[in-house]
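Supplementary material to the annual report.
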Amino acid sequence: MSNRLVKIIFAGGFIILIFTLFFFQIIKGNFFNSLSKKNCIRIIPLDSMRGEIFDRNGKIIVENKSSFDLSIVLQETDKDKALNQVSKILGEDKDILEKEFKKNYAAPFIPAVIKKHISRNEIIKIEENKLDLPGVIIEKNYTRYYPFSSLCSHVLGYLSKIDKTRLQLLKPYGYNPTDLVGFSGIEEKYDYFLREAKGGMQIEVDHRGRLVSILGVRKPKDGASLYLTIDAAIQRIVENSLIGKKGAVVIMSSKTGEILALASSPNFNPGWFISQNKDDRDRIKMLLKSKSSPLLNRAISGVFPPGSIFKPVVSMAGLETKKINLTKKFDCKGFMKVGARNFGCWSIHGLQNMIEAIEHSCDVYFYNLGLILGPNLIAEYAQKFNLGEHTGIDLPNENKGLVPSPFWKRVKKFRGWFDGDTANFSIGQGDLLTTPIQMAVMINVFATNGLLVKPYIVKQIGDVKKSPVIKKLTFKNNNNLQIVKEGLFGVVDRSDGTAHNLYMQDLSIAGKTGTAQVAGKESHGWFVGYLPADNPKISICVFLENGGSGAASSYLTKKIIEDLQKESLI
Amino acid sequence: MRNKFFILAVFGLVLLSLINLYTISKISQIQYIKQVFFRQALWMIISFICMFGASKFPYRKLKLFTVPLFIFVCILLIFVSVFGATRLGAQRWIKLWWLNFQPSELAKVSVVLLLAHYFSKKNIFYVKQNANQFGIFKALILPFILILIPVGFILKQPDLGTALVLIFIFISMLFIVGINKKFIIFFILASLLLAPFFWNSLKPYQKDRILVFINPNLDPLGAGYTIIQSKIAVGSGRIFGKGLVDATQSRLRFLPEAHTDFIFASFCEKWGFIGVLILFSLYYLLIYQTLNIAEKTKDMFGKLLSYGIVLSLGMQIFINISMNLGLLPIVGLPLPIMSYGGSSLVITFLSLGILLNISRTKIVF
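Predicted assembly:
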């Protein structure tokens, strides 16, 4: 037995150990270091909640309800024993609990949910047996709750798990793959403000998970509350009036552009999107499949030909360019030949001046006026009234609509512009497309003698109030507005006006009906107006998709106004 | 001074041990561990006295005590198995006033003495001849059966680590004596054949430890917990160590037994790779010097005794560090000099004292 051999064996042993230690401490050192940190540092989430949403009168429309989840912390308990106990106490199948546990398990010290949304009774049962249930904890969470279910659904939007495209966009702002974010409506538009900042306490724990020291605290921050311009009472009346119909209604405060009600029908219940319930999941599938697109906010995202409610814009174009005045009359024989085609009027009106033509919605008068003006002037004035542009309402997915012109037609459709196109254009048909919110803004210019408002729906974010953005349109002669307004007043006031059904003793209303023909389908019915006519407080746009005619819309408007009066909201 | 490197290594290790235990006491929240440094310092003093005494005691007179000591150890082991204090599921200690004495520590040195005495009693060639001429029974089986007595009782405690060390001492003694290799293979096989018997006599937690050694993730919060936590402690020390406050594995008790069996992991966490290199240098220096003493000793008893001591120390060092690194199952064995524990420390220093005496005696001889 050589002594040297023993020395070499010992040296070899130490060298093997040194290599092993080199591997552990230097090659894998950072890995083990992070493990040691995970061991003893835990983050305890501190509650915070998403901002709540109130209407203009402080009535809560969207609130947060606390919900309770049952979780187990694996490192503090024996899983099988804990699950057995819980299943015995709650009478729940152990396999279901275990399945849920496996889905949520992340690490031994992170609570893994075994049952979501437990009831009050279940909480009490668990608390009573607390001593037999080490490592079983009840976690508090907040979920969105909609006390009025579908009220304001399109305005609010809904909350759902962030999708890939949004995540990519929002990652720099600190969004995580598990976050719930707003989809459409103000939940999306104001997500940044509504969003809560999750707080947490970083604590050091010992081997049994007991608190040793607090390393740091990040205070949670609740999301900002939003106060809407919406009046929940008005909104409810409007939504009720739309039940069973397809369409949209916008009611706006004339002087400021505050949206008092904005409804689109059919609608949905935003609560379905956060529910875990199978029925609600099926409902969402239905929403996505349905041909009547309940998720579409027709008031801002739906584009439709405006029909006759476009006539006030054409009138202004004629008066402002001095191509026509009040003394000029056109003879309506019920049709008019433009090019080789007869363009009809909905009635035979005889000789009409501008005011009469607006009152009666005489198409022949406007064919003539349109041909005098030409398409470019009409387009120019349409744009002056902000058509073809976003109104700038603070909701996502607003559609611009379309104001056609010969140039546009040449470039986009590779076709020339004909007089027939001009005739269609001048009665708001053809390629012209608008949204109900645009038409509300348009009619509001007449209501306010030239104010182009930027409609808005959020009045106040936390403590910060928003102020209205209003642009004063300049006209060459302000009297021109009065001329058109006289026509709009006559529409309701005169017994032969197209919306005389809206006539009321105690309330003067001005407005314009419109029936926009749709190839192969029922016409769209429009009514835009403002009231009281002499000193307007609110402007209104009622749109019924394939609703038949403008008369249908003016009847609906009447119902809404009557209901509002009943509840003395106007 | 002749043994200056030997003394240097011992003092270096003592210093490291005390510093390390001081930090463990300092950062611990537990009353008992807070006293560890003070207690161990007292044990150090007692140990130094023992070492000094042993270095003055002519080692050849130890021959007189080998058999009585062996019998005494066996009696103590029997006593422990009946009346011993139980801690952490093992019955290893005899409580004497305020101190706990662990007879299995004494068994190590006793077995070394007995074997050294037995194999040196007659001329080594005589043993060899005996073995070849009269069969191996009288020459080799007899001592094997003798040491199986303490091994059996120690296994029953249970203390797998110490039992393995005893078997290892026997087999390596045969190497040193220069017995025909086939006999050595015979004893290795014999030990392996006894393994199933050992396996069945193991307690469930010991079986778990061995199974978990094969796959630590088998039960990450049960038996595998210690291995995983120990590896984390070692690895997280990285090059320079985490110092006292950041040594969370030791401080927050994720690492169990950080002052005894897993003191190496705790040391690694605090002092890092650099600290380990210093510790290893000192251990190797000690072993190297001891082997030099063994080599220079002409007396067979002294030679076998010093080999036995160095092999027993070296074996304990390797087993302990390997189990700290997850290279071996957890068997419960202290790291000589570094681990807290009076019995182990006193016996270690007693052995070192005997070594010093052997080293001095050889000039006179």
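Chain A touches chain B at residues 1, 3, 6-7, 10-11, 13-14, 17-18, 20-22, 24-26, 28-33, 35-37, 39-40, 74-75, 108, 204-207, 212 (CB under 8 Å).
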